[in-house]
Specification:
The protein is an all-alpha fold and about 450 residues long. The protein contains 22 helices and no strands. The radius of gyration is 22 Å and the shape is globular. The mean pLDDT is about 85.
């Protein structure tokens, strides 16, 4: 029954991709190829479910299942008291004391340690509880739903990047969004990463529409995705905003002026972050970063993670965080490497890191001066990639988290790479793809 339902929903979403203007406006990629990318994501999600079902000895504690199983508890309230189900699933009135007996049955609703930040596990649990209205508890259906959302976010991100990229290389951006190994693998699971790709790509798309086209009517969508990002991964939006701001201020400037604008925006942002403690007592950003890193270490130790890299606790001091940032950046770029492989998952990550190293070397020998000097989208890609990877490497003490948390930065590394190196023009390839579709 679950397989049949999953196929039905997959076909429904394929029809949406074929007909909805949002997807039809992707001029460079034919619609049939978008469906192929969507199908690959669904398949990757199925592979992830299979790995967590047959490879790990305790699948109920695996990431794919832990949110799904807790969502079953919320869904069980639907037959007992529908109002209670909607309270817990929507977070409206969800703190009513009589709901505690549901929360006590869930394993991952509460963290085993204190954190000043919102428990983002709950957002994924609630997502699964809402999807159960359509899935009737079949996990393969959840896989189709989360992949349609994350695919939508990637399409939104592609439309934004294609708008400002070198027109001769626009089609080259697609592989970096839809086929990059860990982005395809981890971004296709019933995990936080799938929802993050949906919210992040959509936020960027709507923000660009509001800024450049003054489409104020879409502000509710922008606010909705802002809320999702703040609840899910607030550091993503915090790192992105100064990069985004510098991009719009510099997108039509020459190289030297563009770089100066980025430096000024980052300097002002750093000063504001450092001084904000004086204005918002108790919300010291450096302390929050240290606390987040401590949480990840505690989480890895609590679950006895076999991929632990270190247990060096960060202090909330800038002099300690700056070197930790650069160490984290190197770790996020090149670890795990091929000599640290101990499982299928780390093998995929090691091969991808080898690919990244090869991309860097290729860029050195095949530098494209014309494309690199004309399109400032590359600086947005490079700055966000470096800042995000450094942050993730700094706070992640285990390979398991490191290879997953860095995936939002990978499309931006690819954008920088595409504009840095000489690549065949895509005009002829685009014509051939359209010929196939016709």
């Amino acid at each position: 029954m679950g397989v049949i339902l999953a196929i039905i929903y997959f076909l429904v979403f394929c029809y949406v991709i074929l007909r909805h203007p949002f997807f039809k406006k992707v001029k460079v990629i034919p619609t049939w190829l978008l469906i192929v990318f969507f199908a690959l994501k669904v398949f990757a999600g199925m592979v992830l479910i299979a790995i967590y079902t047959f490879y790990y000895t305790e699948p109920e504690y695996a990431d794919v299942y832990k949110y799904f199983n807790d969502a079953r508890v919320i869904f069980s309230a639907l037959s007992e008291n529908p109002a209670d189900y909607f309270r817990m699933a929507t977070a409206i009135g969800a703190r009513t004391p009589h709901l505690d007996h549901y929360y006590e049955q869930m394993i991952f609703w509460e963290r085993p340690w204190f954190s000043p930040l919102y428990n983002d596990n709950r957002l994924v649990i609630r997502f699964n509880a809402l999807v159960m209205l359509f899935s009737f508890g079949h996990i393969l259906v959840h896989n189709v739903f989360v992949n349609f959302l994350s695919f939508t976010g990637l399409v939104a991100l592609f439309r934004f990047l294609a708008k400002y990229a070198d027109p001769k290389k626009t089609l080259w951006i697609a592989p970096g969004l839809f086929l990059f190994p860990s982005l395809l693998f981890w971004g296709s699971g019933i995990l936080k990463e799938g929802l993050l790709l949906w919210a992040f790509g959509s936020w960027i798309f709507y923000a660009d529409k509001i800024i450049t086209e003054k489409q104020i009517r879409i502000a509710p969508f922008f606010l909705f995705f802002s809320l999702i990002l703040v609840l899910l991964k607030p550091y993503t939006i915090i790192i992105w905003v100064p990069c985004f701001t510098a991009f719009y201020l510099s997108r039509q400037k020459r190289q030297v002026k563009a770089l100066l604008i980025y430096l000024v925006v980052f300097a002002v942002s750093a000063i504001l972050v450092y001084l904000q403690y004086s204005f918002f007592y108790g919300y010291d950003v450096l302390q929050l970063i240290a606390s987040k890193q401590h949480e990840f270490i505690e989480h890895s130790l609590f679950h006895e993670a076999g991929s632990l890299i270190h247990t060096n606790y960060l202090s909330a001091e800038l002099k300690d965080m700056i070197p930790a940032f650069f160490v984290g950046l190197a770790g996020a770029l090149f670890r795990p490497h091929i000599f640290e492989v101990y499982s299928v998952v780390t093998l995929i990550a090691a091969l991808e890191n080898t690919l990244i190293a090869a991309m860097i070397l290729y860029g050195v020998f095949r530098f494209d001066r014309d494309s690199f000097s004309r399109y400032n989208i590359k600086w947005l890609g490079l700055c966000f990639f470096v800042l995000f990877m450094g942050f993730v490497g700094m706070i992640s003490p285990a390979f398991g988290g490191l290879v997953r948390y860095k995936i939002p930065a990978l499309p931006f590394l690819w954008v920088f790479f595409v504009h840095m190196v000489k690549l065949p023009e895509t005009k002829l390839l685009t014509e051939k793809l359209r010929a196939v579709s016709s």
